[in-house]
Amino acid sequence: MTAPSAPPSATGPATAGWTQWLDRRVLTVLFLGFASGLPYFLLFSTLSAWLTEVHVSRTAIGLFAMVRSPFTFKPLWAPLIDRLPLPVLTRALGQRRGWALATQAALMLALLAMASSDPAANLYWLAVATVATSFASASQDIVLDALRIELLPETLQAPGASAYLVGYRLGMIVAGAGALYLSTLMPWSTVYTVMAALVAIGMVAVVLAPEPARPPPPPHQRFDVWVQEAVVAPFTHFATRRGWLAILVFVAIYKLGDVYVNVMATNFYLSEGYTKVEIAAVTKMLSMACAIAGAVIGGALAARIGQVRGLFLCGTCMIITNLMYAVLATQPHSVVLLGLVVGLEFFAGGMSAAAFTAFLSRLCDAGFTATQYALLSSLATLPLDILSGGTGWLADHLNSWPLYFTVSASLGVPGLLLLAWLARTADIHHRPDDIGAADQDGSRPVPA
């Protein structure tokens, strides 16, 4: 059994400057991010391209979008991944790495099942394999987020969040543009087989990573006690934070304005006369590079000026760049101006994503990392899953793109005002391990 690494220190000196990226733990997180980002396009846009090529109906293609559901509901089984040991794997690798390797093996098998499908002959089998892939990918995210947070000391959470997002974007590029390019050279079944093989990159990163230190669980527990500690305690423990309800509201609304801009962006481009080639060049290639650069800068900024000021600055930049769409809507057709606006918007989005990820990571309490981060990250996507449904209605009723983007950008203001209030009144900082830490028999106190 591999010995666990030393527990992260919240008080150790920060590694200076960009040399933080050379830290082995940060590099490990980079590859974990790649593993997390790889399945995303394989479940959505890349899969849509495959289905379109074999003449699957648009109705059926639209139904495949429902495979996002496991990512929304992953907090429901996160407590199992957080606390339930796996036979053999937990003993050999530890709780985090054991579960990570298990979910990655399941993801590889599910992608191979997709590769073995023929949607033109049996769409049902592909649908089943796609749901399995989505469930395995969401489960992998639960454990990799927990591993990332527990592997990094407090001083490396911000650069670690940047590295994770950079890796995530690289995984998306490989599964998006890379898979589309490969599809011009080989059948889609072979493309998905290649993508399944690339899951091994994340598996190697997990095996080589140290296992974060965790208190040993008690040898025997009654079922009701286990449910109390694994399922109830993560939520009740978070509720001991001062201002916890306001924190959850902030998590849900911080990026609301950005969601409203992005959901209607493609419709805006097309209605303004931009061609599909121009849109692809700007929103796929340029935007991805800008998002990666923004993630690097955002993490470094949050580490240097602090999480609250970093979130506030990045959120302000996000509002300003969203307003630039309102300016773009008043200008004549210009690919250069489109590239400038989209590039800056994705750069600001990358910055805010890195700062926001580091913020969510610091909110997680020791011992409940997987469950609490799954809850917070799912809550952060709530606007995309529910509130974004009103974007088309708003655009139709305003009947003005400049006004729509102005209103959308303004939706980011309440989040910044709430952040300023939280900074003065709420407990939004990392809490040391002694709060809720395990006692000598391995159990954790459960708040009343």
From TrEMBL:
Signal peptide: none annotated. GO terms for molecular function: transmembrane transporter activity. It comes from the Bacteria. Keywords: Membrane, Transmembrane, Transmembrane helix, Transport. Its main location: membrane. The keyword Electron transport does not apply. It is a multi-pass membrane protein. This is PAT family beta-lactamase induction signal transducer AmpG. It comes from Nitrospirillum amazonense.
